Amino acid sequence: MKQIAIFLGTRPELIKCLPLIQSSCIYTPVFIEQHTDMLSDSYTTAKYTIKIQQFGSNRLNNIISSILHSEIFSLGWDAILVQGDTGVAFAAALAGFNQGIPVIHLEAGLRTYNNEHPWPEEGYRKMIDSITTTALCPSLVSSQNLVHEGFSGKIHIVGNTSIDAIHSYNLESKIGNTVLVTLHRRENWSQIKEFFLAIEELAIKYPSLKFILPIHPNPLIKQHMTLFKHVQVIDPVPHKTMCELLADCNCIISDSGGIQEEAGYLGKHVFCCRKVTERVELIDTYLIFTPTPQELLQKFYIQTQILPRSTVYGDGSTCDKVNQILHN
Fold it and tell me: Is 168-299 in CATH node 1.10.1370.30?
């Protein structure tokens, strides 16, 4: 039986790969001990793990070097699969490439064509695609990006597995009275305090709305929690709970890429705290760009009706499509 290693280091990677792992016995998860406090307990005792060694003071370099030094790649895999745009995905793809192992990239082809936004993810994703054998693209536009770049491997449009997960929850969207907030990206670290102050101001301005922020565990983010007096700060929640919050909320304030897809599927507006997005199909209908705290204050408004459901990133059948491709 063919065996495909799936490399997981962050919570988003686990969320997006778990439906695939559970769908077939050909997948073997390899756990990199990066977001250990945010990952399921069932994976803390995974058969294959890679510990992060301290090669220097740069954490990203340590993660990448730990993966490149791992003996796991010599275990005779038929292929390795990486998801998204993380340092883990880039390092695993590079290590596999160096061993002559076919690389499968789930969520290939997304682009902003701006290496600073998102940084370092845009660069990682492009480098992964340059050594990928099989590109599993979430949308037509992402597949066209690869064609225009002269991609030499096989391209398949499959959607995104995160939509499979949210589809399986059978959620019914409604316009509620909560505003869901997630902010954590590196490019926003320099203005995260100002963003939090702006969100606190919005919570005061709109007393009919309840602002909820599942706080990211990064100390650079958590240190500003005391700024909130009118915003409910909660611990990170499981993916299903997060999707329930998305389905029940009024709108979202976020700098996350994955939440953009999920919010579109649920018909919700996202006030996008970024300058650009790789989910370009969602611009205008679902996304309102608010890259600065000042613009968030100026452009924020209450959503009054559910938007049409977006299936541009899938309809819940991505795992079936991927399995058919990889089994063949």
Answer: no
What's the pLDDT at 32? 93
Edge-to-edge strand list for the sheet holding 251-254: 231-234, 210-214, 178-182, 251-254, 270-272, 287-289
Write out the H or E segment, with its range, that includes residue 161.
helix 161-168
Measure the CA–CA gap between 282 and 72, rounded to whole angstroms: 38
pTM recorded for the entire structure: 0.92
| 129-157: pLDDT as tens digits | 999 999 999 999 999 999 999 999 999 99
In which residue ranges of the chain is CATH 3.40.50.2000 found? 4-160+314-327, 168-299
Q: Which of 296, 85, 262, 86 is nearest to 183 (CA)?
A: 296
Determine the average pLDDT of the residues in 228-237.
95
3-state helix, strand, coil in the chain (%, to 5): 40, 15, 40
**Alpha-carbon distance values, 317 to 8, 13, 196, 323 (Å):** 22, 18, 37, 10
What would be the CATH architecture of the domain defined by 4-160+314-327?
3-Layer(aba) Sandwich (3.40)
pLDDT tens digit sequence for 204-218: 999 999 999 999 888
